[in-house]
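User: Predict the full complex structure for these chains.
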Amino acid sequence: MSFASIIIQLLNGLAAASSLFLVSAGLSLIFGVTRIVNFAHGSLYMLGLYGAYSLIEALGRTPLGFWSAVVVAALAVGLAGVLIEMLVLRRIYRAPELFQLLATFAVVLVIKDIALFVWGAEDLVGPRAPGLSMAVEILGKRIPAYDLLLIAIGPVVLGVLWLLLTRTRWGALVRAATQDREMVGALGVDQAKLFTSVFFVGSVLAGLGGALQIPREPANLDLDLSVIADAFVITVVGGLGSIGGAFLAAIIIGVAKAFCIGIGTVTWFGLEISFSKLTLVVEFLIMALVLVARPYGLLGKPQAVQRVAADPVPPLTAPSWSMALVWVMLLVGVPLVADRYVTILLTDIVCFALFAVSLHFIMGPAGMVSFGHAAYFGLGAYAAGLLFKRAGLPMEAALLVAPLCAGAFAVVYGWFCVRLSGVYLAMLTLAFAQISWSIVFQWDSVTGGSNGVFGIWPSAWLADKTTYYYLALACCGTGIAFLWRVLFSPFGFALRAGRDSPLRAEAIGIDLRGFQWAAFVLVGTLAGLAGSVYAFSKGSISPSTISIGQSTDGLIMVLLGGVETLTGPVVGAAIYTWLRDVVARHTEFWRAVMGGVILLIVLLFPQGLVGGLKALVFRWQERQA
Amino acid sequence: MSDAVLQVEGLHKAFGGVRAVADVSFAITAGEMLALIGPNGAGKSTCFNMLNGQLTPDAGIVRLAGRDIVGLRPRAVWRLGVGRTFQITATFVSLSVRENVQMALYSHAGRLRSLLQRFGAAFRPEADALLAQVGMLDQAERPCGVLAYGDLKRVELAMALANAPRLLLMDEPTAGMAPKERVALMELTAGLARARNIAVLFTEHDMDVVFSQADRIIVLDRGQLIAGGTPAEVRANANVRAVYLGSAH
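Assistant: Here is the predicted structure of the two-chain assembly.
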């Protein structure tokens, strides 16, 4: 690479970094004060982009029209953020953190469908910035003037934020709340107002980040999750709650991505390495490296003190095997009376039930929340497909070997993950899932890229849908029973003990990391089994089985059912899968309906469905007594 | 001292230039109750955390029954027979009192790796015996999350006893308890220590407890040991009086 092209890539990277920084700064600010991991933050960015597009169309493609559109879009997104905070989040600040997460998932679903309804499914390409559409010549290369402006905007916003945070009373409150939320509340500060204002500022930043991208990228409906993944990476690399860290991380990652594109394909020692394909992976690699070296990010500090506000997790009740037997008999009986459609739906439910139970195992009793559990489900599915199609293994063998492949990945990913805890751990799991996704997505020659793998059908004796359902029931049912059994074994109790008090676990000789690592491998293998069974039931697999969407689906299932109960994840998986199927057949806007239902549940049953029902029964019994 | 259970020599620890513990040496023998006292910030907790492996000293030797344990992780130190209770209780809140103690017993026996056995089937009588000793048997079924603070301290003591320790490290064992409870808990501890020949090192702010229960007392001030001896000797020590009462006295 010549010196000139290095400079150009650097400028490219810095231009991309600006928007990334704006979104991440907003996310970081909101997390710092409210402790909410706002999954809907990427959706706000998407709204900013769409909003700016429409406003420019309305106001005209003049410099004045363009810039007023950008500003108005950002402010409107800010108001949307305020609305989300006031209508949803404010009502559940006292609920467990994971439940707040579920609420933000629901908001993601609703916003996606609002965007689909208003702007349609087609990508919308915005205009170049009027007055700035020319290119500037630097070292003989041409670079868009707009990019130079973007490069300037990043530091300007950083400066403004810094002034806001250090020179105003509001800023002092934000910094104080980031350090110690309870203390700020105890000092008589109106927390509701503070939270709302922080949401406003954070959302404006997200909206601005999106709106400024209008000349650079088309508005599309996939932005919400891809942007949130980027923003997570940047906030975590920079250190949660650190604005300066977010700036630094955005630059590092923006530049690294730009260089990957710039370098293109290089041959080293006869080995062809495509750096442009690394673009999707590089940020996650950086994140994994940073987190292993600095568990709190580049400029982050250990998580702020939180006085024990949450109630202790109630004890798990052991599964009632006789009840389980009744359920199994019912499930075995269903195909005798139901039609083909129900059987196929039940096969899906059974697969997702095992997926959800394995996720529950790791995030509930083992206390390690995973945002990237789809990695193992998807890797299991792909391993099954590839072993069958490319390696020519018999279907039965592929079905059983595939989970071990997923487990092998869990050995590697888990080794890194158990070194972290809390939000950082969750983000790292997301990073590994995204690394897996981008490899699958880009490795056309092996995985079929975005098309996936086709023609993965079960052997003749299993081809019948009912027979295959029984196979799925047997595999996944055994998996679930096994995981439940393990939860009540010494191993499972050691995990629960480690979640309750890592300090005490270590002090009585428990090698907690070792146990947690083993748990990772265990659930990875079983999620892989779910994926493997799922792959053969569908006949084909696509990268969506390994996407963030699949991971969040799993989280929704677990949280919907209730993370504090054993059967919750199964109930959640069944209801979510069934509801999605029913709603999707009636309306294009199934996501909004699902999101609405989830929000309703979140507001009515803050312990999840099964938890909520248990509480109701308990109250009823008390009244009888 | 050849019969020392724990021997500490020249322990040093600094945090970013601030000297927390400097040149601390002492020893404790089996069955002895040794109190480590000193004003707030004297370095007591830092000292403690270096003894069980939570912190690594900058310099110094910690010998447990003659074996150097510096650099070992807390779980390895525990395996060598050191029980620990914390200033702020650390128990498994979602498990019952009995399960907490059983957890320590399973760990001691190296039987936590089983995936299919049912937890709780083994070590039940042993757990109940320990709970009876600390007077918690009647609450064995309750989850630790709902216990009163003083009761949690007792559960911690039972867990600390589960690996038949030769040394108990108790950081502020009676903090947060009512005065009556305090003396009761430490009398219980002293009785157990003598009966089982366990050495007990404890920090404590309640001087009634210290002077009535300790066989020997060592005094830490600004990271350094300034006195040591029997309660009577320490009470009469001019340095100690200066630290606690101000130099004017």
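The CA atoms of residues 150 and 201 of chain B lie 19 Å apart.
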